[in-house]
Amino acid sequence: MLPPLRISLVSSDAQLTSHLQLRLQSKGYQATGMSYIDGVLGVFYSDPPDMLIIDLSTDGTAGTKTITSLRSDSFFSTIPIIGLVSPADYDVFPWDTYPLDDFVSLPLDYGELFSRIALSFSRIRRIFDNNPLTRLPGNTSIQRAIEDAMGKPLAVCHVDINHFKPYNDAFGFSRGDEVLRMLARIMFNAVRDAGGGFCGHIGGDDFVFITSLALVDQVCRTIIDYFDQIVLDLFDEGTKRQGYYNGTNRKGEMEKIPLLSIAIAVVPMNSDKIRHMAKVAEVGAELKKRAKEAVGSHYVVDQRKD
Fold it and tell me: Is 282 in contact with 302 (CB distance < 8 Å)?
């Protein structure tokens, strides 16, 4: 069963926010309210919701800045945004500067609002191929991003979690899902902090990110450092000290399973030998195999010239 969809509400009208929050919760949504538009970006970066409803009837300038910032970020660009607008502003509202998905007039007709929320979620599911668990772009977007990176001073990096299946089997799928979400957030933040790029989720524990070739070592080390620190919180002190737990391998046999780690394969895209998608996948698979042979988290950069 999927968790309830999460909606963030932003309005300087505390009474409106409180009432709307209660109405949304009665419909099965998980709703949180914020009074200040300036705090929206911080909330999104720490724990992005599935939808934003923002009151544009009061502070339009801050609202414009917030919406534009979210839309310019590939990770947040797919999150639906519904604006609450005063009817008096319809004719003068600068619609071109507000990349909204929809709007609802004030005072609210809740029947209309709920319908527009449902339609927005339905439209996003049809249009985008984002992974529902991590919200990162899926295979169609990944293929497009890799094709766009061909011949440029960029690196396509394939990421895989070592020993993920036995962890899932031993601790449960909900714990495994948390690991996937955690890695997605770490990867996204590392790429963003390095100046931006692309992050995608192929499926399962397979991820891809694209970043500047000049900064790829820094990004890989950052991802590994944060993952290795946070992953320790998933295990008790005894397991951390011994460095393994007893689990079932792919053959169904009990053995000592190492703690989770990650392998990253780095494929430079300005190489003459990288001319099509299949070659990127081939080189990435070979490098990832080498990275997984190392003890703990490791990344391998393809440095061959031919």
Answer: no
Residue 107, preceding peptide bond in cis (omega within 30° of 0): yes
CB–CB of 300/266 below 8 Å? yes
Q: What is the mean pLDDT of residues 19-47?
A: 85
Which sign does the torsion angle of CA 248, 257, 231, 194 carry? negative
- Above 80 in pLDDT, residue 75? no
Handedness of CA 189, 191, 196, 200 (dihedral sign): negative
pTM equals 0.63
pLDDT average, residue stretch 117-142:
84
- CB count in 10 Å sphere of residue 57: 19
Strand-strand pairing, 198-203 and 298-301: unpaired
Q: At 99, is the secondary structure helix, strand, or coil?
A: coil
How far apart are alpha carbons 264 and 228 in whole angstroms?
A: 13
pLDDT digits (tens, 9 = 90+) for 152-179: 999 999 999 999 999 998 888 899 999 9
Helices 173-193, 164-171: inter-axial angle, 10-degree rounding:
140
Strand partners, 85: 105
The domains found in the chain, sorted by start residue, are 6-123 (3.40.50.2300), 139-301 (3.30.70.270)
Strands 254-258, 298-301: pairing is unpaired
- Pair of tokens at residue 55: 């009151």
Contact between 2 and 132 under an 8 Å Cβ cutoff? The reply is: yes
Confidence band, pLDDT 50/70/90 cuts, at residue 2:
low
Cis peptide before 258 (omega within 30 of 0): no
